[in-house]
Amino acid sequence: MEQQEQRHRERGAFVTGLGRGVAGALLFALPMLMTMEMWYLGFYIGRDRLLLLMLLNIPLLILLAHRIGFEKTFTWREAVRDATIAYAIGLLTSAIVLVVLGLIRQDMPASEIVGKVALQSVPASIGAMLGRSQLGSGSADDGDGTRERRQARYGVELLMMAAGALFLSLNVAPTEEMIVVAYKMTPWHAVAIIVLSIALMHGFVYAVSFTGGHELSPRTPWWHALIRFTLPGYVVALLISLYALWTFERLDDTSAVEILLSVVVLAFPASLGAAAARLIL
Question: CB 3.0–4.6 Å: which of 141, 153, 184, 237 could bond 145 by disulfide?
């Protein structure tokens, strides 16, 4: 009897997690689902770059699932299962929304339909996984979950920052406004935005006492966290920004200076996404 009740509770928790996943996919990915540049990218983006983006999204989802999956996961096999479910939710949610909005029609070639859904499924799947962390009850992070976050390995911290940077950069990288901002910037603007990005990253995690923030020991020098986490995190944001711009074909036929300025501009939201990942994941 107790085993049946336990299975019933586990099944109910899993179904609730699925619901939160759908809600998260819609909440976090809807801005991109309704962005014109993303519609066109699904049509003309290189299929090799799109495939690489989808493949790279898989290990990020598995890592997220291991920490904040649809239910508490204790093995990597369970994390892979949750990551697969999140990707399925991302694909299905993207397809339904694009159909409802009239962006997918029967007269479209199959390659365009597949490209649009596949591209949108990346942020939607990440949003589906974030749904449990952001939309779940406080109990999801109690006990072992809280200790796991606090004792996360250094490499895991960097990967989580990469996931946050990728998710937020996907919102901005396809837009024309980002290119325009980079075009109007001077080198002094670039230096200023680099300093501002690093300061905000460090402040969000260590200074302003957000929920999930990190506190430094009184015996720890202030520069320790800056050098160990904030600066490497900003480097991660720069690399993710460079990759996102390459994926969306924003670097083709572009000078080195323009590429550098574009990366710095995109790294501004990407760095905030990296910092947010350390707070909420």
Answer: 141
Phi/psi at 35 (5° precision): -105, 125
- Compute the distance between CA of residue 129 and CA of residue 65 in angstroms, rounded to an integer: 7
**Spatial contact of 68 and 156, defined as CB atoms under 8 Å apart:** no
What string of DSSP letters covers 111-172? HHHHHHHHHHHHHHHHHHHHHHHHHS-GGGGSTHHHHHHHT--HHHHHHHHHHHHHHHHHHH
Measure CA of the first residue to CA of the last residue in the chain; give whole Å: 36
CA distances in angstroms from 166 to 88, 174, 189, listed in the order given: 19, 12, 23
Token pair belonging to 192: 């200023």
As a whole number of angstroms, the distance between CA 59 and CA 73 comes to 15
| DSSP letter (8 states) at residue 253 | T
- 3-class DSSP assignment, residue 46: coil
Mean pLDDT of residues grouped by 10 in the chain (281 residues)? 70 76 86 85 88 92 77 72 91 94 90 92 89 56 45 74 88 85 91 94 67 53 74 94 91 87 94 83 61
Domain boundaries, the chain: 1-150, 152-281
Q: How far apart are CA 46 and CA 231, in angstroms?
A: 32
What pLDDT, on a 0 to 100 scale, did the predictor assign at position 275? 87
Its sign, for the CA torsion 130, 131, 137, 139, is negative
At residue 81, the 3 state secondary structure works out as: helix
